[in-house]
Design a protein that fits this description.
There is one protein chain. By secondary structure, the protein is mainly alpha-helical. It has nine helices and no strands. Helix 3 packs antiparallel against helix 8, helix 5 packs antiparallel against helix 7 and helix 7 runs antiparallel to helix 8.
Length: 189
């Protein structure tokens, strides 16, 4: 939730619609699921996603500083972010959704479905749809993270103006590019 608050408070800086959709899905699902006692087993499973949140939030603050963006900690945070996101938001969500479909829907639902109310049936369909939307958003984010880490790892080190034979206009151009990246740095991974 802190990341939702950051996006809302600093909307002009982030403009992150996916974060708002993601948290809206989660809030709606948790409120409905907990209030009606439907789907709470899977909701608990989705909470494991939050392991990667520490690295997502650290990345935002590291990227906001031109100094930290050049530091190895920034690159290592990107790698740990990639790994934790892959494990806890992609792989585990695939497992959780697989279990929902092939255990709950396929094995439990045929016996359970005829005896529950229409309201519970509606909630099961709605909450399952929200779970798949949540999983899809995490896959989209993971693709963005992979591309950003790839870009981060292949980025050449910036040229030094102290290097022999360096043209000052090239150094000035590189400095201006670094300044521009620093100004818009929070969108970078």
């Amino acid at each position: 939730m802190p990341d939702l608050l950051l996006v809302l408070i600093f909307w002009r800086l982030f403009r992150d619609v996916l974060t708002i959709i993601h948290h809206s899905i989660i809030i709606l699902a948790f409120v409905l699921g907990i209030y009606h006692s439907v789907g709470t087993f899977y909701m608990g499973g989705f909470l494991i996603n939050e392991v990667s949140t520490l690295f997502v939030n650290a990345n935002v603050f590291l990227a906001a500083s031109a100094t930290w963006r050049q530091h190895p900690i920034y690159k290592w945070n990107g790698i740990v972010l990639l790994v934790t996101f892959a494990l806890f938001r992609v792989a585990f969500n695939v497992y959780n959704l697989h279990h929902m479909v092939f255990f709950t829907w396929a094995q439990v639902a045929p016996d359970y479905w005829p005896v529950v109310s229409a309201q519970t049936q509606f909630l099961v369909v709605l909450l399952s749809s929200l779970a798949f939307a949540h999983g899809f958003i995490n896959v989209v984010w993971f693709v963005f993270i992979v591309l950003a880490v790839k870009r981060k790892m292949t980025r050449s080190s910036k040229p030094s103006s102290l290097s022999a034979g360096t043209d000052s206009s090239v150094s000035a151009s590189a400095a201006n590019g670094s300044r521009r990246r620093a100004q818009g740095g929070t969108k970078e991974l």
